[in-house]
Amino acid sequence: MTTTSGNRPVGELLRQWRERRRMSQLDLAIQADISTRHLSFVETGRSKPSRDMILHLAEELELPLRERNHLLLAGGFAPVFAETPLNSPEMASVRTALGQVLSGHQPYPAVVVDQRWNLVDRNSATGLLLRGVAPELLVPPVNVLRLSLHPKGMAHRILNLGEWRAHLLHRLRRQISLTADPELTELWRELDGYPCDQPEPEIGAGTGQIVIPLRLRRGYRELVFFSTMTTFGTPLDITVAELAIEAYFPANPETAAYLQHQHHPD
């Protein structure tokens, strides 16, 4: 998943990440409080960085925990960040926290996804979003971006498909720029190839909207949502670091009333 394929030296990998972050050697040296000369020697292999120096530079570059482990291995050190399966006993408190957030968000939809947008868990309110989706798209692993934009997924019910599609592809491109994950790049290519008969506006062009809404057809109704993303603070485990909760909120009183009625029909 990574820029660290092969047996490239740690200095070369650090340089590649620095350039990906669009930082000069001087920028990173100042931020990391080291000399430019020292950083140059590390990047060219003239100086072997210590374990602490690798972790320090990785922190300043805001690298994912998985990539920090790869850098440590390239530098001749053991990884320091564990990757604990979510279903393991050690992760019981994490599973409990996720379950509380999902159930507490009812009657509004919420999902837990991993870093590649594969569905990890969801609450029952998401059933409203999944109506009419082709069964094959719901076979695990379920990718929520594919589910949204696939012609047999939610796409035919999204009234502002061009706008929503532009938003999702923009978000995915930004994630690719931060992580350099080739599987996300392949996912972007797949999603970008899906048909769309609506114009796709430039994100950030200034439409006067507060957020980009999801406008969903539900029978003769139009349901309007906005979403938020929540991650764990200061994670030290790769699995936890790569989890996110996307919660959908009603963007108007009519949508809120409909969802409340669906949850409590009496």
From TrEMBL:
Database matches in InterPro entries: Cro/C1-type_HTH (IPR001387), Lambda_DNA-bd_dom_sf (IPR010982), MLTR_LBD (IPR041413)
Protein name: Transcriptional regulator with XRE-family HTH domain
Residues covered by the HTH cro/C1-type domain: 14-68
One Pfam entry name: MLTR_LBD
GO molecular function: DNA binding
Organism listed in the record: Planomonospora venezuelensis
Gene3D superfamilies: 3.30.450.180, lambda repressor-like DNA-binding domains
Highest taxon of source: Bacteria
